[in-house]
Amino acid sequence: KSISAQSDGDKDLQENRQRVHALGEDTAQILKKQVYHNYQQFIDTAKEISFLEGEMFQLNHILTEQKNLMDTMTTIFASKAKDDSTKEDSSKRKAEDKAQEQKKAMSALREKVEGCNNIIDGADRYLVHDGDVSELDTDTFNQISKIHLFLFNDSLMVTTWVGTRRGNAVAGKYKFQVLIPIDTLAIVNARDVGPVKNAFNVLVLPESRMFQCENSKEKREWLEILDSTKRKHLADREKPQEPATPTSPMSPNKSFNQCKSPEKTKEKGKKEINDPRLNVEWLLEMPEDLDVFIAQRNFEQAVEVMLKTKDYLAGIRECPAKAVVEEQLYNRTTQLVDVLSRELKSSPDRSLRGGPRVVRRPVDLLIRLHETSKACNLFLANRSSAVTFAIRQLRTEGSLSLYISKLCKVFFNNLEETAREFNQAFQDIHGCYSSFVVWSQKELSAFVDTFSQQVFGRNADISEVAECVQNAQWHCERLHNLGLDLSFLLNNLLLPYIQSSLRDHKQKIIDATKLRNSEELWRPSNLGTPQATERLVGEMVQLGLKSFVDYCYDGCFSRLTGSTLAFTRAILTHVDSAVKMMLPDLQKSIVDGTAEVVMSYTEFTLGCVQSENERPDKAKLIKENAKFVAESLLPLVEMKIQ
């Protein structure tokens, strides 16, 4: 309204409308450029989010463990506060009733489980919880068998279903498999990824078993009961038991010593013979702390404790008990190295889209544990899996040049990211760079195999082949900025394919030229319309023949015959493609091949001149075509090759 009020007619409105439209287009172009400039930041942000997702899973697991710990502590403190005598009497009656029920339940297990009589006979053992689960393979996550778990107050019994002769399982009948003391196992929650749903791990060092529940409720129930039962068992074991009727002042001590487990007595004996320098509180708790850190995936703190222990033991000399601590440290270090190695290995539940920075954590920890060679090999193996995975995600549909462009971009970008991350992780370890160079050579060889199958194995046009080779060489030269020069290796691998492609195309030109020459009538070319003539002139100018218009007359005629025009297109396309793929070893073959093509046409022209001497008009046209080839076409070919 304001513009129309100040304008005299429609002209001002149209000008303002055009101005607003132009501003809109400029704004759209600016937005596109900004998105293009910040595209790499979008990719980096997505990778960081993926890495953050993994950290959140670990944080969720730690919070769950803390919640269970707080619930247990609250239960203990609440039970201590309730010391009323009436409640004590009722608790005693309930305990007696519960003991009777537990005895009945243990007696019923004799009929249910085969081969467990000596296990059930324990006086202080009773059933806490049981249920059906499925055991999964820790590597492939495939179901191994149906399992029935019986949780006692001091152990976990694993049983399998009893099958008939026909292979069918009998309901309520189980066969004893293994009994795991509850103080030697650790429970780790497994996150839901792929086929793994509602599962948890039971760690019995150095092995691990994975069990899957039917739903999340059962899984949560198993985790809570296992954790609370283990904590209760450890708390009961640490409490000294008083004798019922002490007969002498020495009786309590004697009875107390009898109640101790053999492990406690053995540990006490070790402490008595150990050097005082080893009776440090943190050193005595070191094995248990490391087990907890590894189970909770707190690898950084585990490495800190290991390095601290190693440095402390290095300062102690002439101590027999030192070997015991060193053996404990060695076992935990080996276990941690195995866990970190599994982190670096590719598996179905671990995504490979995060890039090399995702494996930075286990690599750094392995280097700190002086496992540099293993860290290097596992890192490079992980990157090989990532490169293979990225290439398999590409679709072969569409044009060849578009697919090869994507293939080169994916491969060399992954190679560049790997080089940067390798340089950062192994910056001060120069001995590992030879492994990286050998790995790069192996990956490049695999890339050339895939590249050659797509480019040289489908009879593609020579110009398209040249574009693909040039694209690969350009991407390879970008690695020079990182100090990694693979151009010679790439050219050496591509050389036989390029030679074969140029040789085949040269032979096609010679055969096609001979076929057209056999049908040549030596007549000027009639292009039909002036528009067709203009298109032909534009095509020849684009190929480099600036003076081609001089050979056209009368709007739609050319003094060059059809075979000469076809020969011109073929040889210029061949030379343009050859110089794009020019290598030092190809120089002689390119020059000799081009000369062979020219000689085949020259011999035919010479024979036609000699045979058409009696027809001056034909001889004149032949000489004009020969003059075009000698004065316009061949100098252009020579200039392109030079």
From TrEMBL:
Keywords: Exocytosis, Protein transport, Transport. Residues 126-231 form the PH domain. GO terms for cellular component: exocyst; growth cone; perinuclear region of cytoplasm. Residues 81-106, 232-272 are annotated as: Disordered. PROSITE patterns: PH_DOMAIN. The keyword rRNA processing does not apply. Residues 244-259 have a biased composition (Polar residues). Gene3D superfamilies: Exo84p, C-terminal helical domain, Exo84p, N-terminal helical domain, Pleckstrin-homology domain (PH domain)/Phosphotyrosine-binding domain (PTB). Belongs to the EXO84 family. This is Exocyst complex component 8.
